[in-house]
Every structure is written in C-alpha cells, then in structure tokens.
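Worked Example 4.2. Consider the chain below.
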Amino acid sequence: MRVEEIMSKQLETCRPEDSLERAVQKMWEHDIGSLPVLAADGRAISMITDRDIVMSAYIHGMALREIKVSEAMSKRLVTVQPSDDLHLVEERMRVEQVRRIPVVDSKGALKGIVTVNDLAHHLRSRTASGVTPEEVAGTVAAITTPRPSAPAPRPSA
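Applying the procedure from the previous section yields the following structure tokens:
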C-alpha cells in the first residue's frame, strides 16, 4: 500500500517568520499537535510541535508572540513521497523517533502528512494491508523511547 492512500491532505501550515502565538492558535483551532513549516516557495522545510513551542517559551523566557517559529522549529526534516510504500513511513518513524511525517513531491512541495495515528487507524480498517500491527506497535515503542540528550539550559531569573 502506498502513502498517498492513507495520508491526510487537509493541512494547516505555518512559515518560519510566524510567531509561536500564531502557530499555537492554528494548533488550538484545528485540534492538532504539529504544523509543517513552509518556505515562501511552498517547500516543506521543517515541522514544529506543541512540545517544541513549550520548550522554546521556557528556554527563552519570553511571550509566544515574541518568538518566531524559526527559533523553535525542528532542525531536521524527515519526509516521504506519495508513491512510497507504507513500510518506509513506518521505518522512518521508528528510526527517527517521529510521530508525523510530511509527504512531499520531488520538488519538496507539501502534499500531505502521515501520522502514527493514520497507521493505527489504517490497521483497524477491514482492508488493511501494508504494515502489520506488530510493526506499528514496534514503531510506537521506538518513538516513545527517551533519547539521551543534554539537559536544556534554564532561563535566567
């Protein structure tokens, strides 16, 4: 089964120059926990999550309206293409420890997004094929395994 068969196509996005306040507003209004970040030409360049926003606000000690998306967004972007097999999505989620992967065309233009929830809902369908329940369970376990990292700097008081 291919990515395009289960990806979400209705997307909210943001730009690097948007404030975190604007990103949070979109997340709240659409009941989502992340946004693809698009360059002016429409290419996907990053993702920003609700966790990224909270951590950035904590580290900077500033109001969300004073911090740009570019200061909090992920420094790496994991993508797939619409024609890719679902196994590739599952593998990238597991290896990269991400819950959401933007789907882009060959030029990097955003076409959709696949989430670990999409994989789980796909498995519940009667016509499920492509990935097994064991693979999805392994992916969720890998995604939620804490990564070793240095503690974030605390804001000065």
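Strands lie at 34-38, 44-49, 100-104, 110-115. The longest helix spans residues 20-30. Compare this with Example 4.1 before moving on.
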